[in-house]
Write a structure and sequence with these properties.
Layout lengths: L1 H18 L19 E10 L9 H20 L4 H27 L2 E8 L4 E6 L10 E5 L2 E4 L1
Antiparallel strand pairs: 1-2, 1-4, 2-3, 4-5
């Protein structure tokens, strides 16, 4: 009986050991050096202006107008009462203003070229729309073509 219990314990221990997984690598080398192949220091940031200028609230105003008209018309054509048409117009204006502002920021916003000296000696230049707190001499990681704080 004790041998069966011991054998059962060994089978369970082997099964649990087979289920164990090593911790993920996250871009670190398998050597003992601990080099992060996708990490580095920002050496320089270039600001590239889009060259497109528009008054600050143009996108929000135009989007609000289009949204209000669309909301009112959709409610009118679906049998909404006058009160529902007004509510739909206000909701459409708010959604349109939000969307118009987002479109304007995407089109007229600056782009940043971030120069990163990687830990392995390479230099990469990544182009992205936002810095997200990144500045020169910041230790960062390049993930999916985007520079992020580490």
């Amino acid at each position: 009986m004790n041998i069966r219990l011991l054998a059962l314990g060994m089978v369970i221990a082997l099964a649990l050991a087979a289920c164990a997984t090593p911790s993920p690598n996250y871009g670190y080398g398998g050597s003992s050096s601990g080099t992060c192949y996708d990490c580095g220091i920002v050496t320089h940031i270039d600001v590239l202006s889009s060259g497109r200028e528009a008054p600050a609230a143009t996108g929000a105003v135009l989007g609000g107008i289009v949204g209000a008209v669309a909301g009112h018309e959709i409610s009118a054509h679906t049998g909404g009462s006058k009160g529902n048409q007004n509510i739909a117009a206000v909701a459409g204006a708010a959604a349109g203003a939000f969307a118009g502002n987002a479109v304007q920021n995407r089109v007229a916003g600056d782009t940043y070229e971030i120069h990163v000296r990687m830990d392995d000696g390479r230099t990469v230049v990544i182009s992205q729309r936002d810095l997200g707190g990144i500045a020169e001499n910041t230790y960062v990681r390049v993930v999916n073509g985007k520079v992020v704080l580490r």
